[in-house]
Specification:
homodimer, DNA-binding, mainly alpha
Chain lengths: 188, 188
DNA sequence: GGGGATTTGGAATGATCAGTCAATAATGTG
DNA sequence: CACATTATTGACTGATCATTCCAAATCCCC
C-alpha cells in the first residue's frame, strides 16, 4: 500500500502541547512547532490540517489527560475530603508548567466555538466529579452542610486557576501550598 | 517651537489597554492598535517607541489605576473585613473585561524582566495593603488569628486571579459572587 | 508673518508568518 | 520486481507583521 507514518501522533502532539503551554497559540510559530515536534513542515499540515486544528487537537489531548489526573486525585484517599485535598495538592505540584486550559481561556476567552466546546465538555465532567465528592464529604461531615455543591465546585475550579496563574507569576510553591490549604478551609 | 501633540497620551493609552486586554500582546497588531487609538502609525512609534514599550506603558498605567481601585475598595467600610469583602466584590463586578495583569502573566510568565518589574512593584504594594487589612481584621476578631497574613494575602491574590479567569471562561457572575463569598470563609 | 521644530498620514520595507507545491523516498500488494 | 499510494523534504508563495521613510501639515516663538 503506502508508506507508513514515521512518527507517533500522540508523541508529537505532546511536543506541540509543550510549546503551546509555554507560548500560547499566537506565540507559537509553525516553525517552532515543527522543530519541537521533530517532524517536517508538511507532515504537520498533512496530519493536523492547520495550526488551529493542531491547537484544538493538542487542547483535547491535554484536557483528556488533565481531567483524568484530576479525577484520579479526587478519588484517592479514604475520605472524600482527602481526595479534594490531593486534587489541590497535585495542582500545586504541577503548577510550574503553565496549564494549557488556563492559557487558552486567557488568550481567547469564549470567542471560539470549537475551543469553548472542548472546555465545556471537560469542564462539565470535572464539575460533576467535584460536586459528587463535595456531597460525599458533606455526608462525612468534612464539608459544611450549608455549602451548595455547585458553588463549592466553582470555587475549587477558580482556586486551581488562581494557583496556576500565581505559579506562572513566580509565586513560591510553599506559598501555593498555603493557598491550597486556605482554600480548603473555605469549604469546611 | 513645535507643533503640539494632537492627542491626549493617557486617552490613547487607555484605548491601547482595551485592545491588549482583549487580545493580549501577540494578538494585538500595530494596525489594530493605531485604529483603536485613533492616531497615525508614526505617532505611535514617535510617542511610545515600539509595540513592546507601548505594552509596558499600557501595563504600567493599567496597574496604577487597578491597584488604586483595589486600595480604595480595601479601605472602604467600617471594619477591615468589609474592605476585603468589597475588594473581592469589585473584582467580581469588573471581571467581565479581562485583567491586563492576568493576561500578561499568562502570556509571558516571568520571562521578561521589565514586565516582571512592573508586576512585582505593584504586587508588593497590593500585598502590603492586604496584609495590613488582614492584621486589622484579625484584631477586630473577623479573621482567624492562626492565619498568617502573608498566606492570607497570597490566597486573596490567587482568588482574584481565579475569579478573573473563571469570568473569562464564561462563568455566571452570580457564581463568581458565590466564589468570592466562599473565599472569604477561608480566612475567617 | 516667517522659520525652525515636530506631528502626522500614507506609502514603502524587510522580515516573518501560515500554508502549499513538487520532487523524492519508502512502503505493501499484485 | 513494478506499481500505486502515502510520507517526507525543502524550496516557494502571498499575506501580514512591525517598523521606517518622506513629504505635507501644523504650530510656537521671534
Amino acid at each position: 500500500m503506502a508508506r507508513p507514518q514515521e512518527f507517533d501522533r500522540d508523541q508529537v502532539l505532546d511536543a506541540a502541547i509543550a510549546v503551546f503551554r509555554q507560548h500560547g497559540f499566537e506565540g507559537s510559530s509553525a516553525t517552532a512547532l515543527v522543530t519541537a515536534m521533530g517532524i517536517g513542515r508538511q507532515s504537520l499540515y498533512n496530519s493536523f490540517g492547520d495550526k488551529w486544528q493542531l491547537y484544538r487537537d493538542a487542547m483535547h489531548r491535554y484536557a483528556t489527560g488533565e481531567v483524568e489526573a484530576h479525577l484520579a486525585a479526587l478519588r484517592s484517599g479514604v475520605r472524600a475530603i482527602d481526595g479534594i485535598q490531593r486534587f489541590l495538592q497535585r495542582v500545586v505540584e504541577t503548577a510550574q508548567e503553565m496549564c494549557l486550559g488556563v492559557s487558552s481561556i486567557c488568550e481567547f476567552g469564549t470567542s471560539h466555538a470549537d475551543l469553548l466546546d472542548i472546555h465545556e465538555r471537560f469542564g462539565k465532567v470535572l464539575n460533576a466529579a467535584l460536586c459528587e465528592r463535595i456531597r460525599r464529604a458533606q455526608a462525612d461531615g468534612d464539608v459544611s452542610p450549608d455549602m451548595k455543591p455547585d458553588d463549592a465546585a466553582a470555587f475549587l475550579m477558580s482556586t486551581i486557576a488562581g494557583i496556576r496563574v500565581s505559579a506562572r507569576a513566580g509565586t513560591d510553591p510553599k506559598i501555593l501550598a498555603a493557598v491550597a490549604r486556605t482554600a480548603l478551609r473555605g469549604i469546611r
